[in-house]
Known about the structure:
Layout lengths: L3 H10 L5 E3 L6 H10 L5 E3 L3 H15 L4 E5 L3 H12 L9 E5 L10 H16 L4 E4 L6 H15 L3 E5 L21 H11 L4 E4 L3 H12 L7 E2 L7 H11 L5 E6 H6 L2 H9 L4 E7 L2 E2 L5 E2 L7 H7 L4 E5 L2 H11 L6 E6 L15 H12 L3
Parallel strand pairs: 1-2, 1-3, 3-4, 4-6, 5-6, 7-8, 7-9, 9-10, 10-14, 13-14
Antiparallel strand pairs: 11-12
Helix pairs in contact: 1-2, 3-4, 7-8, 7-13, 9-11
Amino acid sequence: MINPSVFYDTLLDCGVDFYAGVPDSLLKEFCAYLNDKCPKGQHVICANEGNAVAMATGSYLATGKVPLVYMQNSGLGNATNPLLSLADGAVYGIPVLMLIGWRGEPGLKDEPQHVKQGLVQNALLEAMDIPYEVLDSETRNWEEVIRGCVERAQSTSSPVAIVVRKGSFTEYKALNQSTNAFTMSREEAIRTILETDNSYAIVSTTGKTSRELYELRELRHEQSQDFLTVGSMGHSSSIAAAIAMRCPEARIMCIDGDGALIMHMGSMAVIGKLAPKNYLHVIMNNQCHESVGGQATAADKLDMEQLAKATGYRHYFSAQNPEDLAQAISSIRNLSGPILLEVRVKKGSRADLGRPKSSPAENKDSFIQKIRKI
């Protein structure tokens, strides 16, 4: 297996000293090492993967050194436009080393949202004329692979990728853990919402939020008719907004996350302009990318009340304990949306948290049956 420390030192030896990306569970050991060891200003946890390619481009323009962009393969979609219209050799010719976690690799069990991406990932790289090498725990010459990829990026003035299989890195215990001072868990917050007002049709964001919502429905002996957005990080708020516009008699709630909100924050401006009166946007803010390793987001520096006002939301509420949350939900009931409710929650979840038993298609059909009856 690959030691994150040696991996980092090898990159430095190749002149790679700037790192930008969105955390991935397959790369979490390396990402944690970057958080601990990389000098300030040389590692950026970005809003989305396209943002990371842009950051890397800026670093190259300033220094002439090859930067590294890391991502889960689901982020290739976000990165495609700047990779082809900015970094490609036919445009500006920016040498970028990409480090991509291979979720959904054929033959390995993974979550349904990763299956198609894992299947077509390498074909996508080939279609974009991005050469790539694959690393796993059995790769003995991985230092040579890194050197070769960096040299190729330099010589061709274009992006080159390293695809990383599951279990490639040795365990690394992070020294600088992302923490916050909040005490309410996300699951406790979702439970409080359901107990206070269960009249909403809910669209939930990817990751543990949807898993907790699904499990709470089971514990309450309720049929899960929420739309669980298991993939498409950052887009659940837009899905919910369109439902609110098309179903004006329904009460629509999006349960979002801070990382997802930041990833595609421009959607808030569109939602504010459309101003669906039946729309409640709930942000579960734990200030980290919990599902992929707990790396910090920029939410600790984000004034969500001012953001809500600036983008046209009619009301803003906040809560960080069950009592305040229940009161906020009750107060919201008779107000016109769009409304932003920021719920400050602690990092972490139950170790025995399950996963939805229904397939995405079954979940979709169940939600359709519910929403079209309203």
